[in-house]
TrEMBL record:
Signal peptide limits: none
Cited Pfam families: FlbT
Keyword RNA-binding part of the UniProt annotation: yes
Record GO biological process: bacterial-type flagellum organization; mRNA catabolic process; negative regulation of bacterial-type flagellum assembly
GO molecular function term, any single one: mRNA 5'-UTR binding
InterPro entries named among the record's database cross-references: Flagellum_FlbT
Protein name per Swiss-Prot or TrEMBL: Flagellar protein FlbT
Annotated keywords: Bacterial flagellum biogenesis, Cell projection, Cilium, Flagellum, Repressor, RNA-binding
Region spans: Disordered: 120-141
C-alpha cells in the first residue's frame, strides 16, 4: 500500500537525502516503495538542541538521514543514550524501546518516541520545533 504525503504550502520533506518542497499551494504525493523520510517540521537543527532528549533525537536523525555515516553516528548514539539514561531514569522503558528500534534500524519510530520525551511531553512539544504536528503520512485509499 503506498504512503500518501500531504505537504502544506512551502513545506519541505527529506526523502532518501533529497530535499523536496511544496509550492505556494498544498500538495500531495505517494511513495510506492520503502524510503527514509522526514518532513521539515520533524527535522531538528543542531542549534535547537537544548536538552539531552533533543541531543539523542538529533543523533538518531543523523543515522536516519545519512546512512553513509551510520557507523560513526551509531557510536555517538550509544554514548548519548547512556547520558540520557543517567539524566532521565524515569524514561527507562522509552529508552529501552528507542535502543531496540535503533538496533532494528526502525529509526523513524525511534524518533517518534524520542519526541515524546522532549520537555513538557505534551502535544505542543511533539515536533522538534515545539509545534504540534499531524501524522507524518496517510495511507493511500
Amino acid at each position: 500500500m503506498p504512503l500518501k504525503f500531504v505537504l502544506r504550502p512551502n513545506e519541505k520533506v527529506i526523502i532518501n537525502g533529497a530535499v523536496i518542497g511544496a509550492g505556494d499551494r498544498p500538495g500531495s504525493f505517494f511513495l510506492y516503495n520503502t524510503a527514509n523520510f522526514l518532513r521539515g517540521r520533524e527535522v531538528l537543527k543542531e542549534e535547537q538542541i537544548d536538552c539531552i532528549e533533543k541531543k539523542l533525537y538529533f543523533v538518531i536523525q543523523l543515522i536516519y538521514i545519512f546512512p553513509e555515516d551510520a557507523v560513526l553516528n551509531l557510536q555517538r548514539f550509544a554514548s548519548i543514550l547512556g547520558e540520557t539514561r543517567d539524566a532521565r531514569p524515569d524514561c527507562r522503558d522509552d529508552l529501552d524501546e528507542i535502543e531496540r528500534l535503533v538496533e532494528a534500524r526502525n529509526y523513524y519510530r525511534a524518533l517518534k518516541i524520542c519526541r515524546k520525551m522532549f520537555k513538557g511531553g505534551d502535544a505542543s512539544s511533539n515536533a522538534p520545533d515545539g509545534t504540534a504536528e499531524s501524522p507524518a503520512a496517510e495511507p493511500a485509499p
